[in-house]
Amino acid sequence: MASHRKSRTPGTRVAGIRTPALATAALTSVALLSQTANASPGEDRPSLEEVEKKVGDLYRQAESATEKYNAAKEKTTKQRKRVDTLLDDVAQRTQKLNEARAELGSYAAAQYRTGAGLPDTATFLLAETPQDIFDQRQVLDRMTGRQKAAVDDYVTQQTETMKKRQEATESLRTLTETQGDLKTAKATVQKKLADARELLSKLTAEEKARLAAIEKRKQEEAARKAAELARQQAEQEQAREEAAQQDGGASEGSGSGSTGSTETPPADSSYGIKAEKALAFARAQIGKPYVWGATGPGSYDCSGLTQAAWKAAGVSLPRTTYDQVNAGTTVPVSQAQPGDLVFFYDDVTHVGIYIGNGMMIHAPKPGAYVREESIYYDGDSAIHSVVRPA
Question: What residue stretch is flagged as signal peptide (predicted)?
């Protein structure tokens, strides 16, 4: 009977008892391994601040590439017009060359009929280059004045036609290179924007909320600095008004200071009228999307907006920030007036139009809309210069 009860040995019993514990340990190990595997990328995952900086850098790099795209596009347009003009000119000159050739042919035919000078004339007509023609001066000695004039015209037309053909060929080569630059700049913009979108897409909802909070704090600080600039400018204006009242116009024309004060207001008044028109246009664009390479009317990039705004005031600005920064008089930030252009970053890749009180209207970046914002939106150091365009 005892033998029938020995089916469960101590070893089997121990194994049965330990099975749940071993299973739990195994599951725990798997979980830990899984956590380690998941944590590994997390250890390399950039902080939120790093993501914010990286995204900001990508947007600035995209804007830099956008300005290069704008420059290449403008150059391509001009070069294409030049090529078209040159090709038209070549066609007209070729027609004149053919007419001159036909006139010489009539002289050759006449000589053939009279039996005079055929070999020399034929040789002349078969010449390949102007140099060959000049080498055969003996032919010219045998021709009448009218024939000589026809030959001179032929030589001139042939020389000019060859020159224009060479210019057209060179312009076509340059156009091809510029189109290559345009394609490269476009690809760069698209790559930078795609990288920025990818970084943002990986953020959790909590991280996006924290990022929004960081952005809000930056905006608050920018607004504080704008208010401080507005206060300083108000104090400067008040000081100027008090100084003008003290002068009272008594020393009109008697000194360099009074001369300056009498000459400056008309210029300021003229500039103010133009600036009002530019600002009115810019305000009407608020809410329209930023689109790289766009010049309106439905969307803009930064330099496209400032160019269009000042065009509405009758002032022609270049297309890119690189050129716009040189299209006027540089003034200190503290003396910025409504209508002035505010440029940003060392590579001058962003621009806005100043509206007063430390604020501007600009097309900020992809995904954003034309809006009013503090000129300190990216900190004091981001401001490159202020330029008065008219």
Answer: 1-39
The set of residues, in sequence order, having a beta carbon less than 8 Å from that of 46 and lying 6+ positions away, is 54
**Catalytically active residues, by annotation:** 302, 350, 362
Chain segment 20-59, per-residue pLDDT in tens: 443 333 333 333 333 333 444 444 667 877 877 887 888 8
Distances (CA, A) of 241 to 211, 237, 327: 45, 6, 30
> CA 179 to CA 80: how far, in whole Å?
10
Long-range contacts of 316-323 (CB under 8 A, 24+ apart): 317/389, 319/70, 319/71, 319/73, 319/74, 319/295, 320/67, 320/70, 320/71, 320/74, 321/67, 321/348, 321/349, 321/350, 321/351, 322/67, 322/71, 322/348, 323/71
Residue 314: count other Cβ atoms within 10 Å of its Cβ: 11
CA distance 324 to 145: 58
Rounded alpha-carbon distances, angstroms, from residue 135 to 119, 130, 140: 15, 9, 10
DSSP summary character for residue 294 = -
Angstrom distance (rounded) from CA 107 to CA 367: 73
Q: pTM for the full model?
A: 0.62
* Most confident stretch, 31-45, 107-121, 251-265, 274-288: 274-288
Per-residue pLDDT, averaged over 331-360, amounts to 96
Q: Which residues touch 182 (CB under 8 Å, ≥6 apart)?
A: 69, 72, 73, 76
- Write the Ramachandran bin of 325: left for phi over 0, alpha for psi from -120 to 50, otherwise beta: alpha
Residue 124 corresponds to which tokens in the numbers above? 């002349």
What the block records as the tokens of 382 is 């981001």
Distance in angstroms (rounded) separating the CA atoms of residues 369 and 55:
17
